[in-house]
Design brief:
The protein has two domains: about 45 residues; about 220 residues, Orthogonal Bundle (MetI-like fold). It is built from twelve helices and two strands, in the order ααββαααααααααα. The chain has a two-stranded antiparallel sheet with strand order 1-2.
Length: about 280
């Protein structure tokens, strides 16, 4: 029996309005955060304008210089590198678990990935600082570098992408697989030609979540990237991300310096919104 929205049972109406209320609260939180960031960023935007955040010679707020470009490039490069490595690894590991591995091995692997997803970022950062940075430094000093940040973020976002992909593959209707096998497709041909298109929306969701975590990560990249405000010209050069810059300088920033850090927060939010919009367009094609 089907019900219209006006003819729902009382329990369903309560559930419907509860879900609507929770959705409204979530939306209000995002709006309030955005309003707060804009309010805090307005003083420096009124005084120096937006262009100077991309045209000044360097980042020295105490000297009235506010260039975000090196940190923006650092954020985008470390995120792009991590996603380019973690996406194929995560998706292919999910394919292995779902369609190739014995059930015992697949179950153990899922437990391991879930464990990795629950490790705090500061633990990843500490491991990177103690193990990974000296290893990279032995190849090319100083060790704290873009490469170290990419490696740490790859490990951090891999569980998110892998678990989301695994859940997406599990939801593909079994009739799709039976039809593909009936047509004589190989297992990999079925995965490539049937499973991937059917699970496309879930795969993009995993990429969005993983990319969002990589862009927003602070502690781990702060510990392994060197925190030098420069555009890295190689994988072995130190750099600083926007999130690390906020964490390092917010404690003592005042006046326009503090306001400029909120501008960087707005910039990060804009990057995330653009990412979500692009992913929505791609997933709906």
């Amino acid at each position: 029996m089907r019900y219209s929205k006006s003819n729902l049972p009382p329990k369903d109406k309560i559930l419907l309005w509860t879900l609507r209320g929770l959705a409204a609260i979530a939306g209000m939180i995002v709006v309030l955060i955005t309003v707060f960031l804009i309010t805090e960023a307005l003083p420096v935007l009124r005084q120096v304008g937006l262009r100077r955040f991309f045209q000044d010679a360097s980042w020295h707020p105490t000297e009235d210089l506010y260039n975000f470009i090196p940190m923006l490039w650092g954020t985008l490069l470390v995120t792009a590198g991590a996603v380019l490595l973690a996406a194929p690894l995560g998706i292919l590991s999910a394919v292995f678990c779902q369609y190739y591995a014995p059930s015992l091995i697949a179950g153990l692997y899922r437990r391991l990935i879930e464990l990795l997803a629950g490790i705090p970022s500061v633990v990843y950062g500490f491991w990177g600082l103690v193990v990974l940075v000296p290893l990279i430094g032995s190849l090319q000093p100083p060790g704290t570098s873009l490469l170290a940040g990419i490696a740490i973020l790859t490990i951090m976002i891999l569980p998110t992408i892998a678990l989301t992909a695994d859940a997406s593959f599990a939801k593909v209707p079994p009739e799709y697989l039976k039809g593909a096998f009936a047509l004589g497709l190989s297992r990999w041909g079925t995965v490539r030609g049937v499973i991937f298109p059917a699970a496309k929306s879930g795969l993009f969701t995993g990429l969005i979540l993983g990319t969002g975590r990589a862009i927003g990560e602070t502690m781990a990249v702060l510990m392994v990237c060197g925190n030098v405000v420069q555009t890295p010209k190689s994988l072995f050069e130190p750099m600083r991300t926007l999130t690390a810059n906020i964490a390092l300088e917010m404690a003592y920033a005042t006046g326009n310096h503090r306001s400029a850090l909120f501008v960087s927060g707005l910039l990060l939010m804009g990057v995330i919104l653009a990412l979500v919009a692009v992913a929505e367009v791609i997933s709906n094609e």
